[in-house]
Design a protein that fits this description.
This protein is mostly helical. Helix content is 77%, strand content 0%.
C-alpha cells in the first residue's frame, strides 16, 4: 500500500538548512560584511599596516614553535602511555588534561605569578637577564600549555586500537628504533597525527586568554593577531 506524502521530511530538511545558515553562514557573512564595511581600500590599508603585519608574523612564529613542540611531545607521550606501565602514569594523564579544565585566563595569571617580576621566579629571572612575561617567550609558553592535550589525545585511541604486534614483529626481525618509528608507527598514526596537528594549530592561532594576560598588549612587540584585532 502506497504511503501518503507528508511534509515531515521537507520540514526537517528545512530546519537543517535553517540552523546551518544561522550557525555557519550568518557568522561568516557578518565577518566579511564588517571587514569591508568601510570599503576595500580601508580594509587593505588595515591589513598592510606595520602593526598588523607584525602581529601576523608573531602569530605564525608562536604557532609554529608551539605546534612543533606539542607534536613531538604528543607522539612520544601517547606512545609511552599506551605501551608501558610506569609510576606516575595517571598523574601524567591528569597533567595533559589540565588545559581542558582550566580557563586560559587563569592559566595566564598562574604564569604571571610564577614568571612575572614580582612572581615566584621573578628575582632569579631578573638576576639572569631572562624575560618571560611581556615577551615572545611568555606567549610561546602560554600557547604551548593551552594546546598541550590536542595531539596526545588524538593519538592515544589510535595507539590503543592498532596494538603493538607490528612494532614487536619489526624489532624481532632486526629493525632499529628509527626504522620501527618511521616505517611502522608513523604510517599507522598519520591521519590521527594530522588531525591533532590541525586542531593544535587552530587553537594556537586563535588563543586569546592566556596570551592576553602575558603579553601586556605592547603593539609591535607582543600583540598576536587575535590581540591586535581586539585592540582595533
Amino acid at each position: 500500500m502506497k504511503q501518503p506524502k507528508t511534509f515531515t521530511p521537507f520540514f526537517l530538511i528545512f530546519l537543517t538548512y535553517f540552523f546551518f545558515g544561522i550557525l555557519l553562514v550568518l557568522p561568516i557573512y557578518t565577518v566579511f560584511a564588517e571587514a569591508f564595511s568601510e570599503g576595500i581600500s580601508k580594509y587593505w590599508s588595515s591589513i598592510t599596516d606595520k602593526h598588523t603585519l607584525f602581529s601576523i608574523q608573531l602569530t605564525l612564529k608562536v604557532t609554529a614553535v608551539s605546534v612543533l613542540l606539542n607534536t613531538v611531545f604528543g607522539i612520544f607521550s601517547a606512545f609511552a602511555l599506551t605501551r608501558f606501565q610506569f609510576p606516575g602514569k595517571n598523574i601524567l594523564l591528569t597533567i595533559i588534561d589540565i588545559p581542558f579544565s582550566v580557563s586560559p585566563v587563569v592559566a595566564g595569571l598562574v604564569f604571571l605569578l610564577l614568571f612575572g617580576r614580582q612572581g615566584y621566579f621573578g628575582d632569579w629571572l631578573v638576576a639572569n637577564g631572562i624575560q618571560v612575561v611581556f615577551n615572545t617567550t611568555g606567549l610561546i609558553l602560554a600557547t604551548v600549555f593551552i594546546t598541550f592535550p590536542f595531539v596526545t589525545r588524538e593519538l592515544i585511541p589510535i595507539f590503543l586500537s592498532t596494538g603493538k604486534e607490528e612494532e614487536e614483529a619489526g624489532i624481532l626481525l632486526g629493525a632499529n628504533f628509527f626504522q620501527v618509528f618511521f616505517k611502522i608507527i608513523i604510517p599507522n598514526i598519520k591521519w590521527g597525527l594530522m588531525y591533532g596537528i590541525i586542531l593544535c594549530n587552530a587553537r594556537a592561532m586563535g588563543e586569546f586568554g592566556a596570551v592576553s594576560v602575558l603579553s601586556g598588549h605592547i603593539r609591535g612587540k607582543t600583540t598576536t593577531l587575535p590581540l591586535h584585532i581586539e585592540m582595533l
